[in-house]
Amino acid sequence: MGEADRYQEFEPPPALRPFVRTIWTYAAPAPEPTVQRIAPDGCPELILDIGAPYEEQGDDGVFRLQPRALFAGQMTRPLALRPVGPVELVAVRFEPDGARAWLGRSAAEATDRRLDMTARLAGVIAPAGDPEAQVAVMIRVLEDHHRRNAWSLDPAVRAEIEAAAAERPSPLRSATDQRALQRRFRDRVGVPPRLLRSVLRFRRVFDHAAGPNALGWLEAGLEAGYFDQPQLARDFRRFLGCTATE
Questions:
Q1: Which of 37, 135, 137, 176 is the most exposed place for a label (fewest CB within 10 A)?
Q2: Arithmetic mean of pLDDT, 92-103
Q3: Total Cβ atoms within 10 A of residue 60
Q4: Predicted pLDDT at 144
């Protein structure tokens, strides 16, 4: 981030807290026009651009402008973005299973996709330069949808997510119950339970590799739950598209 850049996180109100992890704002008046590589983090997001939208690299290698408002589903591979002008945005980071009701369809349909939300957020205006007002706008949108659509969670799916986040093993289930949970998990989260565990483990590497007591990549990987360096290297390629050194 440059000296003039701004990033802030805001707690959601109590009614949204089971579904929304945080609401965040970001502004970069003069971003470097470099490609930014984004790794999966296990959380879908709703993003409203107030400044210039980013360009996203497609599978064909071509960069195309993202819509002004978008829903970013679960990611299983890295995403490459680059700014094309002054950046300012407000975003809702949902819990892994928290966006199903907002989306209105299976979360699996949004996996590795950025869905255009321009029509759904038509008329929603977030004032530039005012993070608190931007967050208030998004909260009103979400609370209105929450009231009208009776958002809910699947307790078994949430319990599986909490076990993964706490690095606990999954509860023992019969083969039939496990297959049923996997179907519900994919519908609510967008990816299988095992893949979400892999994503969360990969993100823990960065927790151990940052801060005043930062570890080297191998040590951070071992602390995050990897068995050895080749296993860590595979996930760097899988989720970030580069080696740890790169």
A1: 176
A2: 98
A3: 6
A4: 97
With a cut of 70, say whether residue 34 has pLDDT above it.
yes
β-bridge partners, 38: 79
**Do 188 and 110 form a contact (C-beta atoms < 8 A)?**
no
Q: What is the pLDDT of residues 118-146, one digit of tens each?
A: 999 999 999 999 999 999 999 999 999 99
Point out the least confidently predicted range of 93-97, 152-156, 196-200, 211-215: 211-215
Contact 56, 81 (CB under 8 A): yes
- Least Cα distance to 92 among 126, 48, 59, 54 occurs for 48
Q: How far apart are CA 37 and CA 204, in angstroms?
A: 17
Residue matched to tokens 């960069």? 63
Distance CA 99, CA 20 (A): 8
Contacts of range 222-227, beta carbons closer than 8 Å, 24 or more positions apart? 225/167, 225/201, 226/201
CA distance 246 to 241: 10
**Nearest-CA neighbor of 70 among 84, 58, 56, 57?**
56
Structure tokens at 41: 């983090």
What does the alpha-carbon distance between residue 19 and residue 93 come to, in Å, rounded to a whole number?
A: 9
Task: State the amino acid at position 43 in one-letter form.
Answer: C
Alpha-carbon torsion angle 236, 237, 241, 246, nearest 10 = 60
Distances, alpha carbon 215 to alpha carbons 17, 166, 218, 239, 241, in Å: 32, 21, 8, 20, 21
Mean pLDDT of all residues in 68-75:
98
